[in-house]
Design goal:
Layout: H1 4-8, E1 14-17, H2 22-26, E2 29-36, E3 45-53, H3 57-62, H4 73-85, E4 91-97, H5 99-106, H6 114-131, E5 136-142, H7 147-157, E6 162-166, H8 169-172, H9 174-192, H10 215-223, H11 240-249, H12 285-289
Parallel strand pairs: 2-5, 5-6
Antiparallel strand pairs: 1-4, 2-3, 3-4
Helix pairs in contact: 4-9
């Protein structure tokens, strides 16, 4: 199954897809675009496309596709299985954006916000379908930002296609509903099978919904904050919730050109972690993997 590679390495991200049905190479197709995981502070964001011949849209709707947010996890998995079983006329593709990629993109020197990242990812997936031989005729997209501007942007990029961008498109167009299911199933599996490279002992997976306002998620972030190196790779460190915890509980960095503080109540500098005195706990894996030892001075 195409998602098995994602389950083996969820943090790696990348593109995953079904085989292109031969019928989709011959007949005009409708293609839907949607995402899952835009808002959470934990886990990847997944963009998905789903496509089928225009003449098969009623059959696609008959599979019971719906906005993934209205379905239970079991129902999403079942309907994703139906989409895979309909592989003679239905195809899909995913782009999985890991937390580190999202944060690095948003915090780079040149401004690049989440809306731009979302637009670019959707555009790349539509182009991927075209490059794969899918005879895309119509594109339906769940909007990110103002729908009219997004639609104009896609029309300019794909002048030969009919493009419709609408809010709540996953509830309006079955082909977008199908993409919504694909995206949500992939994100859920990525979070479920996440391989923690950090030394968390028995992997701590009691992180709630992953949304910033979830008390269980906030507690998980607090519990798994490493004062020097921050959070596990599952966390989007550019989110305000994560940054606030780092500011409050992380070790401040004092740069060489800064004046040292005389305040005895100030929190310890990051340099204190390289002191000669015996460490109070097992060194972070960063030091262990590089066989680094404390020095008297730097």
């Amino acid at each position: 199954m195409a998602l098995s590679a994602l389950e083996r390495d969820p943090a790696g991200g990348g593109r995953f897809s079904s085989a292109v049905p031969p019928l989709c190479r011959r007949r005009p197709c409708a293609l839907g675009v949607d995402e899952a995981g835009r808002g959470p502070v934990l886990g990847p964001m997944v963009y998905a496309i789903c496509y089928c011949p225009v003449e098969k849209l009623e059959e696609l709707e008959a599979l019971g596709v719906a906005d993934s947010k209205t379905l239970s996890e079991a129902e999403r998995e079942r309907r994703f299985g139906l989409l895979e079983a309909a592989g003679g006329s239905v195809g899909w593709a995913l782009q999985v954006l890991p937390p580190a990629h999202i944060s690095a993109s948003m915090q780079q020197r040149a401004k690049y916000n989440l809306n731009e990242l979302s637009h670019d990812t959707a555009t790349e997936l539509i182009q991927f379908a075209l490059d794969s031989g899918v005879q895309v005729a119509e594109v339906f997209v769940d909007t990110v930002g103002p729908a009219d501007k997004y639609e104009a942007k896609l029309r300019q990029r794909f002048p030969g296609l009919g493009v419709t961008v609408r809010p709540k498109a996953d509830a309006l167009f079955p082909v977008v509903s199908a993409a919504s299911i694909c995206a949500k199933v992939a994100r859920d599996r990525a979070v479920l099978h996440w391989n923690f490279v950090e030394d968390l002992g028995d992997p701590d997976r009691d992180y709630g919904s992953g949304y910033p306002n979830d008390p269980k998620t906030k507690e998980w972030l607090r519990r798994n904050l490493e004062p020097v190196f921050g959070f596990p790779q599952l966390v989007r460190f550019s989110w305000g919730t994560a940054q606030a915890l780092l500011q409050r509980d992380g070790v401040p960095v004092q740069w060489a050109d800064e004046d040292p503080t005389d305040d005895p109540t100030a929190p310890p500098s990051v340099l204190s972690y390289f002191a000669r005195s015996p460490p109070r706990r097992l060194p972070h894996r960063f030091f262990q993997e590089r066989s680094l030892r404390p020095l008297a001075e730097l």
